Amino acid sequence: MVREEEGEKEREEGQGRKGNRKREKESKRRRERREQEKKREKEREESEESEEREESEERGKKEGTGAQEGHPAPEQGPSRRVSGFRIGGAPELCIPEHGAGRVTMTQKNTKQEMTGDAVVDNPANIAPAVGAGRMQPPSETPGLKKQLKNRHIQLIALGGAIGTGLFYGSSESISLAGPSIMLAYIIGGLAIFMIVRALGEMSVEDPQAGAFSYYASRYWSKRAGFVSGWNYWFNYILVSMVELSVVGSFVNYWFPGIPTWVSAVFFLIVITALNLLGVSEFGEAEFWFALIKIIAVIAMIVGGIVIIVCALPTDLGVRASFANWFSIDGGFLPHGLMQQTSDGHWTGLLMALVVVMFSFGGTELIGITAGETAEPRRTIPKATNGIIWRILVFYVAALGVIMAVVPWNRIDGTMSPFVQIFDSVGVRIAAGLLNFVCLTAVMSVYNSGLYANSRMLYALAHQGNAPRYLGRVNRRGVPVAGVLTSAVITAFAVVVVFVWPEFAFNYLMSIATIAAFINWTMVLITEWKFRRTVEAGNGPGALKGLTGRDAVQALAFKLPGGHVSSVVVIAFMALVAVLMGFSASYRVALIAGVIWLAVLLTVYECMARAERRSEAQQH
To answer: Where are the domains of the chain?
Structure first.
């Protein structure tokens, strides 16, 4: 008996020792991982310090040489050599941290010398001119201020997927698929999540203004950067055009005597002035715009649930219940996967995917903000990972509650489904409240669009893909030229809407429809190119020098599934493009998209040839 007790005690002690050893091993592995992370961070800091010292020494040599040749040294601060890119600037536009002086620049493989006043933070951030080769890896975005806080990024990400399309356009998607539209949003949401994760992988390791355009230019080709950047810029010009052209209708709800063009001009001036103040002001405004939209959606969901749970009577003749998803006019999947109606239109779950995908435009704004985010390695992953639950709450839950209260076949687009749900129980004030929410949504879209466009022009200028004056910033870190240029072009586009509405909506908006599709596809391809660069040992920052699997494992925010995910999502995008061909309106967008891509590629080739001729003449 004593032996058995002693044996049992020994076994317990043995198991305890094994558990202790296991915990010790796990603790050791965690310590080793932390030490490796600290080591990589230290190596990156040392690498950056070394680069700065080398640049400082090189500037000293250049300044000494310039003085000997009769060029005066800069008065306000050190100038920097920029290879393969001619930058013009003005001293009054310099940033406090970096003075603007006379810069001597030489282009590789040419004898040409170029001089001008530049506002440059890090010459490695500047890409060669068109046709002059690949960019060098940057350490940070030059000139811009990292003033966007975590709460700004989170609300920008939250509000990015909520616009007038949800409040008014959701009736179209419901009519196509009925209750199964919720499934369409889940499928489309997963695809968008993977696209933004691909962008997030690059943004965390290399946070830059211009995001996907910059990454396409650096890791893919100069041509890809040009196409991606200008395509995105023109897309937001057109989206802003539409939003400003309809803002008057929301104002007229309260003040019917005000001409719609007056409202458009007023809000264009106000939002433009806001963007000229600084990035923190943009972030603060977008924070409150997004908060209003979020509160509106949550209030609708809560109100709808109260109607369902409390069995409040409605004037629709049907009791509010989640069972309505399955019991009304064909059930959950009333039109099947795909079905042609008697008038020749196609409906069904697959056709709804087309509408659903385009409702997610704006989610990629997270990547644009990375260059001005104080802590991109912390805030970008958090905002990106929140996309899934945002889609589940703001789209799936919202539409699910709507169709539980209002039968899906009674949602005909004559009024917003969000108004219809409260109107059915006699809450008439809902229309006025939603009108206010939509007005803030319009301002939010133009605010985000102007911000994104000014930063895109800034990035394109630093790639050599746009006029160099667009790459300057003022003392507040605002690319003033980019803001004003985008605002003026948007104003012109609004005039086009009022003068030639059919041309604007039938053709220009067709380009805007397909432009987001083009950029999403390019983001996935660029991420694949980025991974190949990282695996080859040429990754940015602390990744530089690491190769193969070690380099991929060192990525702080990896795309789940890697290349496999990219291929699957690209195949899904191709399916949606094919489905667009079955719809007359989207078929026009497909044709316009092909023509638009051809125009962008032609312009790039003309610029590249002009650059090569200029270089040849100077030899």
So the answer is: 150-496
